[in-house]
């Protein structure tokens, strides 16, 4: 298969982890005889520094023309503590999601058998966790009207959803559940919010056309508690933009490190793949950031194009590195392996796995 992949390294550790994902895709390319063409562009603080905007027009164009986007990370602390800053790196990612129509953000959460001890949660609680969050990504409070009065003393952000925005992601969530454990949990705050009541109405109606899938509901406060009390109860969690943002960071505690969680952002015409972690500026250039979330994002990219065996080769190679302890210090504190060594090991194992298949 020929794929044009736009690479957006972004800020902090983004470039380092993305480089490892590219190595793995190149290993897949060689082993399975595909042709991947990579083109790189600026985004985030890196783009503000060089071009004055977090999402330059040329970057957006490159992404629109590509088959898929592989994204590193975004954010720079110099903007975080300045409430007056008009331009922020994160705007680049938000604009990109909106312009590419990436309405569904898919975040799998798994407990890895060899990492159960890494989670601050008890083994018995997290063992066997396997759920996926379907987070709405281009609506809600993130994109509603924002206001600040003249005096700068009153501010508001509108949380607005339309039936269309709810139903298109709900269909994806139900379809995913059909191929999994056949359960969708809608997380909302329908006891308080009008927008949540609309979600319930629309999702309930759509659920009727998926009779094999059970639908249940949880208020977001309860969901936050259930996620750490009894995470194995979940299969597909469907939720709006901000609740999904918050719950997916909480979910990362189950996996043992936020450096392991990958995500896919899907629209009708475009797709983007990125780790859920941020730019981790303290680690920039130190060769310590975990590349696995980025590498697993590349595996999700392959799955998106139906390259299941190729994606599996990456996932098995990642498993092997975790089992053998070829991991970064977030997983094993005194590890002598860095970002690049872990990336190299996984990329080489991809080749091995394919050889094993042939024998
Ligand atoms: C995420 C991030 C982004 C979000 C930020 C960087 C805008 O936290 O992808 O989860 O809030 O969506
Ligand atoms: Mn987030």
UniProtKB/TrEMBL annotation:
Binds 1 Mg(2+) or Mn(2+) ion per subunit. It catalyses: (2R,3S)-3-isopropylmalate + NAD(+) = 4-methyl-2-oxopentanoate + CO2 + NADH. GO terms for molecular function: 3-isopropylmalate dehydrogenase activity; magnesium ion binding; NAD binding. The record marks 142, 189 as: Important for catalysis. Pathway: Amino-acid biosynthesis; L-leucine biosynthesis; L-leucine from 3-methyl-2-oxobutanoate: step 3/4. HAMAP family: LeuB_type1. This is 3-isopropylmalate dehydrogenase. It comes from Flagellimonas hadalis. The gene is leuB.
């Amino acid at each position: 298969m020929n794929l044009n992949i736009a690479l957006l390294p972004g800020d902090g550790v983004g470039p380092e982890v993305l480089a490892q994902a590219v190595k793995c895709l190149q290993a897949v390319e060689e082993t399975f005889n595909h042709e991947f063409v990579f083109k790189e562009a600026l985004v985030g603080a890196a783009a503000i520094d060089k071009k004055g905007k977090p999402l330059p027009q040329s970057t957006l164009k490159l992404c629109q023309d590509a088959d898929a986007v592989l994204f590193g990370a975004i954010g720079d602390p110099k903007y975080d503590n300045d409430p007056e800053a008009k331009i922020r790196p994160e705007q680049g990612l938000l604009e990109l999601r909106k312009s590419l129509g990436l309405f569904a953000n898919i975040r799998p959460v798994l407990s890895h058998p060899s990492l159960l001890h890494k989670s601050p949660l008890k083994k018995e609680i997290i063992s066997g966790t396997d759920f996926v969050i379907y987070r709405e990504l281009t609506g809600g409070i993130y994109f509603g009207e924002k206001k600040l009065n003249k005096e700068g003393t009153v501010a508001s952000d509108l949380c607005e959803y339309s039936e269309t925005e709810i139903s298109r992601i709900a269909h994806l969530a139900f379809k995913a559940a059909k191929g999994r454990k056949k359960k969708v949990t809608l997380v909302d705050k329908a006891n308080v919010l009008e927008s949540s009541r609309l979600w319930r109405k629309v999702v309930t109606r759509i659920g009727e056309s998926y009779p094999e899938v059970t639908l249940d509901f949880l208020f977001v406060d309860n969901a936050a508690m259930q996620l750490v009390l009894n995470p194995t109860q979940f299969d597909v969690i469907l939720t709006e933009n901000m609740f999904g943002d918050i719950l997916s960071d909480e979910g990362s505690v189950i996996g043992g490190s936020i450096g392991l969680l990958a995500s896919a952002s899907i629209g009708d015409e475009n797709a983007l793949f990125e780790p859920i972690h941020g730019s981790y500026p303290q680690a920039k250039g130190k060769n310590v950031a975990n590349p696995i979330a980025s590498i697993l994002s590349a595996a999700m990219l392959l799955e998106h194009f139906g390259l299941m065996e190729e994606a599996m080769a990456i996932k098995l190679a990642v498993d092997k590195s975790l089992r053998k302890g070829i991991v970064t210090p977030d997983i094993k504190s005194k590890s002598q392996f860095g970002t690049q060594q872990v990336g190299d090991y996984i990329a080489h194992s991809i080749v091995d796995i394919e050889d094993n298949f042939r024998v």
